[in-house]
Amino acid sequence: MECKTAQPLLETYLDNELARADARELEAHVDGCAECSVLLTRLDALRRALRNNGLRYTAPAELYARIAASAASVDSASGRTMPGVTSIAQSRAWRTPTPWLRYAAACVLAFGAGGVSVRLWNSTHDNANTQTQLARDLFASHWRALAATSPVDVVSSDRHTVKPWFAGKVAQAPVVQDFAEQGFALVGGRIDYAGSERMPVLVYKHGQHLIDVFVLSPNEAASLANRSAQNGYRLESLRVGDQPAVAVSDMDQVEFTRFAHLMAGTP
Amino acid sequence: MSPAATTSWIDLLVQQHLDAAYNLGRWLLGNDADASDAVHDAYLRAVRSAHTYAGGNARAWWLAIVRNCCLAKLAARKREVPLREGFDGSNVTPFARSDNEVEERVHAAQQSAHIAEQLRALPTEFRETLVLREIEDLSYREIADVLGVPIGTVMSRLARGRALLRRALAPSAGEHKYGM
């Protein structure tokens, strides 16, 4: 590949929209070409400037509450609710407030008058002071993995390769499952340290999101809050087979919940 | 699908992508009140037009509705939001060098505000394309669906938008900061 072919493809490559074969060819060229390599680095710097500077606005709690209120009135106005009957579908949506939605409503009551916009997630969970050292280690491990050339030590979408790889490296090799069909593809595994403990990490991909699943010992699990968040990344406890674990990713809440259900083997 | 099931489907979709909707609204309209109004309008419109959803990417369908509501608001406001002139990066403020942590934090905040400012200064079509690609992480196909333009247009807007933004951020003191 020549520079004049390569350069128009750099952005498409960085956007992950280049066909695999073309991407390989481009990588081979960039590796040996100083000029194209500088251009790619510049594009990547711009991307990081846009992604790592907290430019994403999150919906204020008032907006959640406002839409929830409309949802209720849309339903009652159109007579969709049969008296005394609550469908499963409804209980999952706005009408029966989930804990965070109830929280949103509480925020509006408390702060709405003063016009204080509350960052829902941050205020409930993102309290760095109460986070344990373990939680900080897990976030740090996730970020290190994101920054590394490869987030995994053993690359495989085959669970029969990943599980034996862990055997002998950690006391108990975790159950490894692949959920590619449900949108959570197994990427591989790695070993990481939290404190002085070796810990198996299962790595999944959901769209552009990388998910690290840290398999914990019961003691470690007990020292950790069920949920916390830092810099837009979330940590949530779940179960891998009969072992406690936590997932760290920048997925949103709904996807987290779906993933936790899959991992636990409950539909 | 029963009406109740339709409502619930929309509600879940909106819930899941409320941040994405609000973020797009904020970047298009520039303030919280208008962005919240537009997203609320979009929700009502989505419920009304749920039966017109013909399959395909639901997030793109929802964000397209949000965008239409934002554009309607922009039109109603009848004033130019994008600063099409004077956009040459000459208003870049040089950053002071810092040694201690407090200064570095201030510095990081300045840098972040500076990038936001330059993104805000981009013409709407480049700004929205960059926001959808870089902040919301949408694919070319999804962006094309939201904006109602061909994929080729998405690609050329991204290229142009990035070039403009880089030029705005790169000159003088910004250069060593962003490596571009």
Count of DSSP strands of chain B: 0
Instruction: Assign the structural class of chain A, choosing from mainly alpha, mainly beta, alpha/beta, alpha+beta, or little secondary structure.
Output: alpha+beta
How is the biggest beta sheet of chain B arranged?
none
Q: In CATH terms, what is the fold-level topology of the largest domain in chain B?
A: Arc Repressor Mutant, subunit A
Radius of gyration of chain B: 19 Å
Main sheet: strand order of chain A: 1-2-3-4-7-6-5
List the uncertain runs of chain B. 81-98, 172-176
Average pLDDT metric of chain B: 81
Structural summary, described in words:
- The complex is a heterodimer of chains A (267) and B (180).
- Chain A is built from twelve helices and seven strands.
- Chain A has 267 residues and is α+β, with helices and mostly antiparallel strands.
- Chain A starts with a helix and ends with a helix.
- Chain B has 180 residues and is mainly alpha-helical.
- Chain B has two domains: 3-77, RNA polymerase sigma factor, region 2, helix turn helix motif (Rna Polymerase Sigma Factor, Chain: A, Orthogonal Bundle), CATH 1.10.1740.10; 101-178, Arc Repressor Mutant, subunit A (Orthogonal Bundle), CATH 1.10.10.10.
- Helices cover 71% and strands 0% of the residues of chain B.
- Chain B has helices at residues 3-16, 18-29, 32-48, 58-77, 101-120, 124-135, 140-147, 151-169, 174-178.
- Chain B starts with a helix and ends with a helix.
- Chains A and B meet through helix 4, helix 5 and helix 6 of A and helix 1, helix 2, helix 3, helix 5 and helix 6 of B.
